[in-house]
Amino acid sequence: MVGPNGEQVGIVRIEDALRLAQEADLDLVEVAAQARPPVCKLMDFGKFKYETAQKARESRRNQQMTVIKEQKLRPKIDAHDYETKKRHVVRFLDAGHKVKVTIMFRGREQSRPELGFRLLQRLSNDVAELGFVETSAKQDGRNMTMVLAPHRNKPKGVKDDRTSTEPVEQPAE
Description:
Blueprint: H1 14-23, E1 27-32, E2 39-43, H2 45-61, E3 68-73, H3 79-94, E4 98-104, H4 113-126, E5 131-140, E6 143-150
Parallel strand pairs: 3-4
Antiparallel strand pairs: 1-2, 4-6, 5-6
């Protein structure tokens, strides 16, 4: 048996341990049932449950949720559509999310996986300053997937060169 302050009391009969717990106005809690003889401790069980709940809540608060966004493309995508999809990927990476880029092949497109691979390479090169390729392009069935992850060293709130706040001079008319 272990006392309320963590001191070793020794091997005690169950009746004596229950009497000691009742006198100290504490609970007798079995902490190691597999041990021979089983180990019990005198403690305030309500306080113990509250403290473990607080620790669990604190560890969940410090945990970071990883969000994976998905962007789907086709191998024969138009240039304007590609730019639109690329802007979505840039927005997701700026927000700190991972992006799963999927290229969907249909019909005879499946016989030309190099088109999808080149498209994924182009996209990864276009967003290289915001993120890196976490999982390289691989084909599974009709789809080819790649996962992009944001760079961690970029501090939040830092503006990039696309959003300049400098005034633009207007030509005199």
